[in-house]
Every structure is written in structure tokens, then in C-alpha cells.
Amino acid sequence: MTDAGFSPRLLPDEIHRAVGPGTALLRLETTGSRQSLLDGAWWPRSRDVEREVPPLITALTEHLGPITRVSLDASAWNGIPTRLTVDDRVVHLDSFPVGDDTVLITRGDNDHFSLMVVPPATTPEAARTAMARAVRAENVTQAAEILLAELPHPAAPSVGTAPDNDPAPGP
Fold first, then answer.
1. How does strand 40-42 pair with strand 111-117?
2. pLDDT over 70 for what percent of the chain?
3. How far apart are CA 137 and CA 13, in angstroms?
4. Residue 20's pLDDT is what?
5. Phi-psi region for residue 108, left (φ > 0), alpha (ψ -120 to 50) or beta?
């Protein structure tokens, strides 16, 4: 659904831009079929909603038209207000258990877009890899699975050693 007089501009698949923290990397199908599970990926610099969400909304509005609502996982973000004013428009924020790996964007009354959220501390190489996988037109993998597969994980403790935060085994 679009606002009266607005025709969304969709990004051609062949456009590639440098991917850095805070960049909204989008794959928006020109056919409208939107068969992939994810519509894009976002790599915020922090978990500060008032700092990170406005630039995302501005970038998305440029290509999708006015954004009316953003849904974030309350456990993953620092203090989610009920609304933000971005570019002189009020955008409502919802805090739902959508998963800290996903942000839901609403345009109009009922047109939703799902973006994978790359954790802020992710290395550039890992973020680029995860984001590229998320925006493939044929992607049928959930955001959590992509992040689990693509992001580095802490090394497991060696056999015979106790993790730093666990008590050593007793006699």
C-alpha cells in the first residue's frame, strides 16, 4: 500500500554500495513478489534507538516512501520510545519480541518489510558476508540462522579446562 501520489522507487539488484556500520543494505524486488524471507539487512553502530533508527528511517523513506512504524526487540535495544519524529514525520515504535536479529518496518497501514539486524560489534568482513546472504533474492533462511552461520563465535574451552566464569571442578 502506498500513500496517495507516492510511487516507491525500488533499487535495482545490481546496485552495490560500500557496507559500513549504520548502512541499510536493501534488496527490493521490482516484481513485487517478495519471495525472500528478508527484504534487507541493517548494521547499526550501537543499540541506541534514538541515534540509530532515524538514519535508517530516512534511508528507507527515500526508497519506500513514508515509514509509519518500526518494531524492535525491547531486550536488544536501549530504551525504546513510543515514537520518534524523523524528517518532520512521526514514526511509531513498537517493542515486541521480534528477535534481536530482526527489525520490522511498516509502510502505510499494512505493508511490512523485514530487515536482518547485524550486531553492532560485528567485524566488517563478517557483516558484509551476512548482509550479502540476507539480501539474496532466493534466500529462505531466517536472520538468526544467517547470523549464527556467518558471524564468528568465541572459541570453545579446551578439553580439561574450565571456562573462566564456571567454578573449577572439585576433588
1. parallel
2. 68
3. 9
4. 57
5. left
